[in-house]
Amino acid sequence: MSLTPEEKKKLSESDICDLYITPALKQAGWDPFTQIRREVTLTPGPIIVRGNMSSRNKKKKKFADYVLSWEPSLPVAVLEAKDNNHSVGHGMQQALGYSEIMQVPTALSSNGDGFEQHNKHPQAGEDIETSLRLDQFPEPRVLWRRYKSYRGIEGDEQELLMEPYHDDGSGKEPRYYQAEAINRTIEAIAKGKDRVLLVMATGTGKTYTTFQIIWRLWKAGAAKRILFLADRNILVDQTLVNDFKPFGSVMAKIGNRKIDPSYEIHLGLYQSLTGKAEADKTFKTVSPDFFDLIVVDECHRGSASENSEWREILEYFTGAVQIGLTATPKETKDVSSSTYFGEAVYTYSLKQGIEDGFLAPYKVVKIDIDKDVEGWTPPPGTVDDLGNPLEDRQYNQKDMDRILVLNQRTKLVAARVMQLLNATDPFSKTIIFCEDIDHAERMRKAIVNAAGQLAIDHPQYVRRITGDTKEDGKADLDNFIDPESKFPVIATTSEMLTTGVDAKTCKLIVLDKNITSMTTFKQVIGRGTRVDEEHGKWYFTIMDFKKATELFNDPEFDGEAVVIYEPSDDDPPEPPDPPVGPEDDENDAPDTSGTTKLVVSGVEVEIIAERVSFIGPDGALITESYKEFARKQMLTEFASLDDFIRKWNEADKKAAIIAELEEHGILLENLAEEVGKDFGDFDMLCHIAYDQPPLTRAERVNKVKKRNYFTKYGDQARKVLAALLDKYADEGVKTIEDARVLRLEPFDEIGTPVEIIRDVFGGKEQYEQAVRELEEQLFRQADG
């Protein structure tokens, strides 16, 4: 298509793609159906939370104009397009950012005149960046060859990589990090690696990623018999009916101490495969070469321990390729995921997931109770509720609910939990982590009493879900994690829900449990990290009564695990590990420490401090009000009051400025909670950012009416503008900028929207000009 330079500059970016870029790709041999993908969302943008509201920062959304693939499962290049008012290389920095997260060697940019190419893996004599004409776009085999060299893929390894993903017809495909995890794993196996570790934060789709890995290896014939190992029944059952469902009739769950060789995909519990007695070692009923591939879910737990009974399963099938999956690699002197499986071939962290917008951010409410922080020394002669004497010593936070039970403290925690739920949504799914099963039961009782009528109307409102609750507990757990099941709302637990439970809609996690293990802490936090847009779950709250969230400050919180023990004969003695506390236990168990708990009623307790923190842009927790957050964002966007007023007045629609601020997390509904609901958007923003005394919307309207500027309009137009002023006083600027307001009272008495715009104002342009002039009068800074 031949256009003049002036005509070309009038084309949109989409037109440039359709008329120039896509034809150039096709001419170079790229298949538009299997190799060219347009408008690919890589990340949706992080969710910003302040107060009780949230929004996505769409400014940080990552959206690639083109992703080019050798096969649908193998992206090799990314291309950023711009309209012709930009230079050819204007989109290069964006393209480089996208190529970095997708781990492809080629980034390209175009404005329809030609291409700029960045090659991260140049051969001898090649430039890193080159300019290309439209007819010089690289052929697919050129970029595929570069990709293979960049990733170190040899000739006979590529066959395995080209096996496609499973496609269920719904359009669902792996997210960028899932695709990278899948391809890195298959690449490692193709290169002959037989121990592979994948680290992916809770909520990022480890099981779906695993399914695609197994599917591709199984379909390619690289693995014919596969074992998926887990240590909790719910993990196996969830996997069987959800992500692994496409395997259908070739898949079975191992039961009755028998491995049926007629199936190809086997899902099993460690406990059903082994035991202390030789007769319980079901895994030995098949030969050591029976399985080609073993996938170990949550491999930070028992399987990583060298003296674990479970480890013998992996060692028996030592010839099989073994893949370890975890959100939290466990690295202690005696347990090391990395030592067994090797360094992770791919890591996708909680911090990265929140930054990308795939995981829910969190706010933290830290609550200090006087007897925890200041300690409590019982007066001489004090006895517990059973008449047992109390030691003459100071009891502190670590003693609470392990050694000493203050009933008033339990009631206070329950009351504070219900206070938060009642102020937000009393039906928000909530997990309360307690010290042990006894504590979980007492907390259940305290919640029932604190919930009052809610607990009477809904007997299933709160349930204890612990390792000893058997069939009832299984039903309660199934209902708790089912987004469509309203009850139970609150689950009290100690260890049962720390890991592997897909509670998508959990909005509140309460920590009334001493946690010092980083592995346990990450797993507990992981219960809230899933985003569930369908059910309005965008973020979650952590209510911390025992300072567990101080682990957020530990540099290891979201860092990569460090192997601190690699056994060899010549190793020097290692320093002793810190004492292992009950929080490191892998399963719920009653308190067996031999210490009888002292239960004391009647000791008054109170909250002495409460702080609310939010996760900040850098991933660190910050303590600030929403007003202070909005102020910082405003000053980033508008350096001065004059700058803001100028841009506000120049905007054809103020709603556009408001929408832009919302993309930066400034939600005016939230701001109104702190500043006042009677102030308009303009006044709230000027007040919080530049310390201007705010006027209410009604005060601004009265000032306009006193100026009597309506005289230039006819009677009907004056009625419409006066009604618009009243609407502004009631609802704000966005309402009067939306022409649909003309359908409402009192405008409907004057005419239809079309009649008002056409007959009263003389047309759309004149009506919009009248609204702009009305806004100019509203937002004048000086009286006149």
Describe this structure in words.
The chain has 784 residues and is an alpha/beta fold. The two termini are 57 Å apart. Mean pLDDT is 84; it is low at 302-307, 331-336 and 560-594. Helix 14 packs across helix 15 and helix 24 packs antiparallel against helix 25 (715-731). The longest helix is centred in the middle third of the chain and has 17 residues, at 407-423. The strands form five sheets. Strands 19-20-18-21-22-16-24-25 form an eight-stranded mixed beta sheet. It has a seven-stranded parallel beta sheet with strand order 11-12-10-13-14-9-15. A six-stranded mixed beta sheet has the order 1-4-5-6-7-8, sandwiched between helices. It folds into five domains: 5-151, tt1808, chain A; 157-348, Rossmann fold; 362-559 and 596-600, Rossmann fold; 624-690, no CATH class; 697-779, no CATH class. Strand 2 (47-50) and strand 3 (53-56) form a beta hairpin. The protein is flat, with a radius of gyration of 31 Å. The chain has 28 helices and 25 strands. Keywords: Coiled coil. It holds the Pfam family EcoEI_R_C.
Keywords, please?
seven-stranded parallel beta sheet, Rossmann fold, single chain, 784 residues, 25 strands, eight-stranded mixed beta sheet, tt1808, chain A, 5 domains, alpha/beta, 17% strand
